[in-house]
Design goal:
Number of helices of chain A: 11
Largest interface: A-B, 69 and 69 residues
Shape of chain A: globular
Structural class of chain A: alpha/beta
CATH topology of the largest domain in chain A: FAD/NAD(P)-binding domain
Oligomer: homodimer
Strand order of the largest sheet of chain A: 5-2-1-9-21-20
CATH class of the largest domain in chain A: Alpha Beta
Strand content of chain A: 15-25%
Chain lengths: ~450, ~450
């Protein structure tokens, strides 16, 4: 039986944009807040592609969650993975418990906010993930960086050993903001940053191909901006293929519509699949696993359980779902925190309403597009806006300064400062050598 | 048959201090130089302990070898692992070849410089490595960082779940410069950087123990400096145990002399074992695998094959071997490069002579020792000297600036900016939970 003199206990799952915002809104308020995350750090996902393309280092876009929230005395941060729920007992189960006694693996709550995010989906072909990694975590970004840089190293070595320069080509699958950003940045690496450092191969001849199933890239933007973005990508040397469906991914090649295309590395930037925790809540979900929440963001039958961010399915007035972007997660967190506070005051809950503050995508040096209400920007002005907004929202003063210096450095030197291949190089050498050659061996 | 009009081909194995220096000395000279390394980057090993203790990020102490050498048109850099030699055929074998044809796995040389370094040795107990990682590569540093930070996270979680704060203790094995630097930095993390961020546990109560088998730490320094260093460590809260031999390492505990001591994490900073490539050269080696080289640093029977750096055993005038430090490797590289140039000019080769320019070890904030000839420094002045020298020798202007900013930031805020636990957190959670508890379970 709950002691009503105790402060209500709010458990938040996930230290992304939504989870952090909810915690901050409840910080130093009369609640006992526990935030649980699988990582010890918050990752600023909008800049992950810059880690993947060796512009920034992991530490520059990530901060320990504990650090971000340390000034709130009522917030406890716990590293752990939530495995299941017992909503009737108001309990969250976490893995890897210190003792075998099962009860100790549970954390009890009065309110639960589930903000565990989403990852890429491979449309039922999860085996493609190894061949075509997506970009959701720092580890993903480092894996992509490793592969990108390794392709050039391998080609240089082959050129030395065999005298032949094999063609290099990169395939980026998905023409949304992440795919566009990756394509532009990969082209920049090949054409600028690496060109002088390789002596036997001509890195500027590397092909960068972007495949989009729809009839235009960045389809969430206005059509004129899509066209401008395509033009800007092409100026950077990216080959943009529209109406192009990837039907198979194999080692060293992909099947696009009906044509096999050889690729040295494949990056996946399409499809979304909400955290499997959504289904474990027992609430109805849509086909990508997002929970169909009530207008106040609680779930059916459990008024004290909320789902926010990429895990929540909420319709806007125009019938479309609220997009899976950081501002939406933050706004949902604000609504939920306010509703919890209102509950305690005996006030009626608010209904969530998404305010679209605009969207942006960057393409490369001096190149970007932005759509803010009716204002449509492209080129330098959009790029500067993009830089400014991302610096402002990046968490931590230290990171802001560091990223700004990196950007200034990269702009003037055209270098990439984080060009490290880490991990087990022996393994990588073996795996990649065989990977690269399989398509050849097949013929 | 070699065409004498061709430039002589010099193959260098290893992109550490020795290999890089040799390459630079032969850069833009009438040689064809190929540098082979398992990594794409040079690691500035003297600052690795700062990556392990979350002060610096990997990218700040590493630079792509290709980038460092890109201005020398006659130097080719190849990512690859050397597996064997055929010295009579003047060939180096590398792994993971692009084609199955074995000949293509060989790189031929006129001169060979082997500078593949050393790693930690576990005195025949290589199985201890997993339990007590050493510090030689960026991957090692990240593994140590992961474990250090994880110990605190786990303790906080246990405190939440069970209400009990388990004691936290770190054991650092080996009282040489690396062990001393690690011990000081770990104490700094526990006592300063993390203290405010953990709410349930008192991180300042974490024990940091340094075990040294000899009767004093930093035994390569003057005895008065050893004593000062010990005092400085103790001021930081480190427990220094002398005449203490580690006889066994198990999960969660170590056997020191005859006493089992519980440890949350164990770091290994003693013992050295030269690269196994030394033995493959067929030359005589000492008991840690260092090659007994001729006075000109070539190996017996092969005047065109040189071994330098941590892999070479050379006696100084006082009978002691040249220490395995960066300045020695650099000086050897200079001698070898000069000898190769002399060969081409028909001049007699030089004999290697080590010039000791002094040595330093840092202990913590404002704390260090330095011995330069007869000058002995300790405290703030030694610390400033240490900072200055390391900034000067750190490779890359970009890295110098970045590290300087990090140090200034860390000094004034007492924060650690690179406190990320990366890697598979699920795996880590499972492994660590069981690791931590085994000693308890045994009773």
């Amino acid at each position: 039986m709950r002691n009503f003199k105790e402060k209500p206990k709010v458990v938040i799952i996930g230290g992304g944009f939504g989870g952090l915002e909810a915690a901050k809104r409840l910080g130093n308020k009369p609640f006992e807040v526990i935030l649980i995350d699988r990582k010890n750090h918050h990752t600023f996902q909008p800049l992950l592609y810059q880690v993947a393309t060796a512009v920034l280092s992991p530490g520059e876009i990530a901060s320990p969650i504990r650090r971000i929230l340390h000034r709130y005395k009522n917030i406890e941060v716990i590293l752990g993975e939530v495995t299941d729920f017992d909503l009737n007992r108001k309990a969250v189960k976490i893995n890897a418990c210190p003792e075998s006694d099962d009860n100790r693996c549970e954390i009890f709550f009065d309110y639960l906010i589930v903000a565990a995010g989403a990852k890429h989906s491979y449309f039922g072909h999860e085996d493609w993930e190894e061949l075509a990694p997506g970009l959701k975590t720092l580890e993903d970004a480092l894996e992509i960086r490793r592969r990108l840089l390794f392709v050039f190293e391998l080609a240089e070595r082959e050129a030395l050993l065999t005298g032949i320069q094999k063609p290099i080509s990169f395939a980026i699958i998905g023409g949304g903001p992440t795919g566009v950003e990756l394509a532009g940045a990969v082209a920049g690496i090949a054409r600028r940053a690496l060109a002088k450092d390789f002596k036997l191969i001509d890195t500027t001849k590397a092909r960068v191909m972007l495949f989009e199933g729809a009839s235009r890239i960045l389809s969430s933007f206005d059509e004129t901006l899509s066209q401008k973005a395509k033009k800007q990508l092409e100026d950077l040397g990216v080959e943009v293929y529209l109406n192009s469906f990837v039907k198979a991914v194999e080692r060293g090649r992909i099947l696009v519509n009906d044509e096999w295309i050889e690729c040295s590395a494949v990056l996946w930037a399409t499809g979304v699949s909400a955290s499997p925790l959504g289904k474990k809540l027992g609430a109805p979900t849509d086909k990508v696993g997002r929970v169909l929440v009530n207008p106040d963001l609680s779930i059916p039958d459990h008024k004290n359980v909320f789902v926010i961010g990429d895990m929540a399915f909420v319709k806007m007035d125009n019938g479309n779902p609220v997009p899976g972007v950081a501002p939406a997660a933050i706004q949902m967190a604000q609504t939920v925190a306010e509703n919890i506070i209102r509950d305690q005051k005996g006030k009626e809950r608010k209904v969530f309403k998404y305010v679209d503050k605009g969207s942006m995508a960057t393409i490369g040096r001096n190149k970007a597009i932005a759509e803010i209400g009716r204002i449509k920007l492209s080129g330098l002005i959009a790029w500067l806006t993009w830089l400014f907004v991302h610096l402002i929202f990046l968490i931590g003063f230290r990171n802001k300064v560091s990223v700004m210096i990196e950007w200034i450095w990269a702009y003037f030197t055209r270098e990439r400062s984080a060009r490290l291949i880490t991990g087990d190089a022996e393994e990588l050498l073996k795996t990649f050598a065989s990977r690269q050659n399989l398509p050849t061996a097949k013929r």
